[in-house]
Hints:
This protein is of the alpha/beta class. The protein has helices at 14-32, 45-51, 57-64, 92-102, 126-131, 169-184, 200-213, 226-235, 247-259, 299-311, 316-331, 349-358, and strands at residues 2-10, 35-40, 68-73, 107-113, 134-140, 150-155, 158-163, 189-194, 220-225, 242-245, 270-272, 278-280, 334-335, 345-346. A hairpin with a 2-residue loop joins strand 6 (150-155) and strand 7 (158-163). Helix 1 (14-32) crosses helix 10 (299-311) and helix 6 crosses helix 7. The radius of gyration is 20 Å and the shape is globular. Magnesium ion (MG) is lined by residues 251, 255.
Amino acid sequence: MNYKIGCIAGDGIGPEITNEARKVLDAVGAKFGFGIEYTDILMGGCSIDVHGIPLTDEAIEAAKSQDAVLMGSIGGDAKVSPWYSLPPEKRPEAGLLGLRKALNLFANLRPSKLYSALKGACPLRSDAADRGFDILIMRELTGGLYFGERKTFEEGGLRTAIDTLKYNEEEIKRIAVKAFEIARKRKCKVTSVDKANVLDSSRLWRAVTEEVALGYKDVALEHMLVDNCAMQLVKDPAQFDVVLTENMFGDILSDEAAEITGSIGMLPSASLNETKFGLYEPSGGSAPDIAGRGIANPIAAILSAAMMLRFSLDLKDAAEAIENAVEKVLLDGIRTIDIMSEGMTEVGTSQMGDEIVRRI
Ligand code: IPM
Ligand code: MG
């Protein structure tokens, strides 16, 4: 069997880390008897450099015609990169948002798991780190503040700006259904995070989530206010299983959930629509400060490839082979600089990829 995978290497550390993910995918393909045909797709800053815009219609069409898309990262250092003197809708990030919308990728899965080998890298108090955690953030990805009406204007002589947080019940329902479905395969708990003590959109979110929960009596639903959730994540992350939340809250909480694992360079993500298609990318950004130095942690990209095998290609065993190899590499004390600690062996980006391949 041959699969068609789009590869958006992107900017910053994107090309280096997707290179390692491809290496690992090819190795796992050789072992499990499937092949991958890659199509490179430009998006973000590298697309601006070539086409003047971060996402072309051709890129969208190319992505749509694949079985799935593997992505690195997009964007640069806003202080120095010429991409950021362009108007907002022409900057690298607009490309990613445009692609999410064009492919209707409304469900963003961001797992945050503390590997036992990395307990020492966890910045939390040792009792919290000892209990460990395995959280799945289910972030709504195509609605809310990111896609609502926005404008900057003058009012009473003052510069004024508006962003709109809008959700309809269908948008809430479809992401809630995904959260409950996936909770069923985990620890059967959904924590729906909102700001229902202030926002109308959150009160609707809560009502619709409760309606969806009626169809999932085996899954426990709790509601939590987003400020409390931010606090609980650092106090007692073990309490969470699936965290369901809207786009902006999910953006913020998923970085927090990533950081408590020791490094944002470890965390993969999947962005899914109603079909098997998905876009798979590290939760972290393009890290322009370390780009091109061969020191970036490729594990998030490699684990994103594993998520792609699981969710888009139905290759569960191959996905597990990658996840086990990552677990083994960590147990064997191999570390990139972001997760380095005393007594461990420090390696660069491509050596980390090689070490994972060796354990497939
Ligand atoms: C993310 C990123 C993006 C987002 C940016 C790059 C637009 O922070 O994927 O979390 O805010 O969604
Ligand atoms: Mg983010």
